[in-house]
Design goal:
about 280 residues, alpha/beta, globular, single chain, Rossmann fold, six-stranded mixed beta sheet, 10 strands
């Protein structure tokens, strides 16, 4: 399969006076159709990486390739059309007076014909279950509804890659689960690639692959099972320990024989039920 994203030795410094760069020779690839999460503590360089990929900042060293094309000052605007970015606070993305206007805004800028634009707005709002809110003011929506509209505005543009920059951090657990479910459905329906910048380890656990950053460096890459398998690994990364991993450690300390691997909450519950009914 082809790489939609190739990052090689990406280095970036906000201020020349800083002792350490915000990013220090970061390299990774993302395959078309993959869901990759980048995790790390605050200041690890996650969001800086996302903003550089989306062309929101310049002045970096190294190489960013999007769909095989090297990102430059000359092609930044054309390559940004291949990327849709959903931010932490959806209010920062709203520009339209109504939900319908807001979802249409990006397409208007791209010169999409009106009939096609109307069809895409309807399709995008239906995909996020917000078709009944077309005439509502975005400011009057709940946090979860606002994030759905922001996502609709992105998928209406038909990008190849969606970047979620802490997109669920302002939502409660139920709202977060709803948004993640919608993103997964959209990813499969439109054959998208997802790069998620997140501190939510439960959210990251559903990724195909996880990249761990620390102090501007990429320190580990692997499947959720590989990354979350041991509590000491998470502490070494400077991250919180997933509840299920911590619970497995406690149960094993009390003598319960559980296969040593990562389980999400649902998998662990199923395993414990099976062990209890034996």
């Amino acid at each position: 399969m082809n790489n939609i994203l190739q990052i090689e030795n990406l280095t970036f410094q906000y201020d020349e006076k800083d002792l350490e760069p915000a990013l220090n020779k970061v390299s990774f690839d993302v395959i078309e159709g993959e869901w990759v999460s980048i995790i790390g503590h605050n200041g690890s360089g996650k969001s800086t990486t996302a903003r550089l990929i989306d062309g929101l900042m310049d002045g970096f060293e190294g190489t960013i390739k999007i769909a095989g094309q090297t990102l430059t000052e000359e092609n930044v605007w054309s390559l940004r059309r291949k990327i849709g970015m959903v931010f932490q606070n959806p209010d920062n993305q709203f520009v339209g007076a109504t939900v319908e206007d807001d979802v249409a805004f990006g397409m208007e800028n791209q010169g999409i014909p009106r009939e096609e634009m109307i069809a895409r707005v309807d399709e995008a709002l239906q995909a996020v279950n917000m078709q009944g809110f077309k005439d509502k003011e975005p400011a009057r929506l709940s946090g979860g509804q606002k994030q759905r509209v922001a996502i609709a505005g992105i998928i209406a543009l038909r990008p190849e890659l969606i970047i979620l920059d802490e997109a669920t951090s302002m939502l409660d657990p139920m709202g977060c689960a709803e948004i993640m479910s919608i993103i997964r459905e959209i990813k499969d329906k439109y054959h998208l690639t997802v790069l998620s910048i997140t501190h939510d380890l439960e959210e990251a656990s559903h990724s195909d692959r996880i990249l761990v950053m620390k102090k501007g460096k990429m320190i580990q890459s692997g499947s959720p099972r590989e990354i979350f398998a041991r509590e000491e690994n998470m502490l070494e990364f400077g991250l919180d320990v997933p509840f299920s991993t911590s619970l497995v450690e406690e149960l094993m300390d009390k003598g319960l024989k559980i296969p040593e691997e990562y389980y999400d909450d649902e998998e662990l519950a199923d395993l414990l039920v099976k062990m209890l009914v034996k």
